[in-house]
Amino acid sequence: MVFRHGESGIRFTVTQSAIQRGETVATILCVDDSRLVRQLLQVVLTNAGHTVLGGSSGEDCLSILSREKPDLVLLDIMMPTMDGLETLSRIRANAAFA
Q1: Contact, 36 vs 13, CB < 8 A?
Q2: Where are the strands (E) in the chain, listed by range?
Q3: pTM of the predicted model as reported, rounded to 2 decimal places
């Protein structure tokens, strides 16, 4: 997948690769309190061949990380209760999440 940022915004181009071979590229955990943002990320990333996990809060993120080992975490900074920076701090402090 190629990401391009220009005057018209970000454009995603999915290249001929793992997607056409039916392979999963990566498992990505998307954490955002906005359901719309999570759905958008899921569509884009799934179409690019990734497996997508979703959470709506910092607490969800930590709970999912206790069960799953994603390759990447996309974490919203501004969330209620536990913001993204606090969540990141707890992830870094827990060796089990490494």
Answers
A1: no
A2: 2-6, 9-13, 27-31, 51-55, 72-75
A3: 0.77
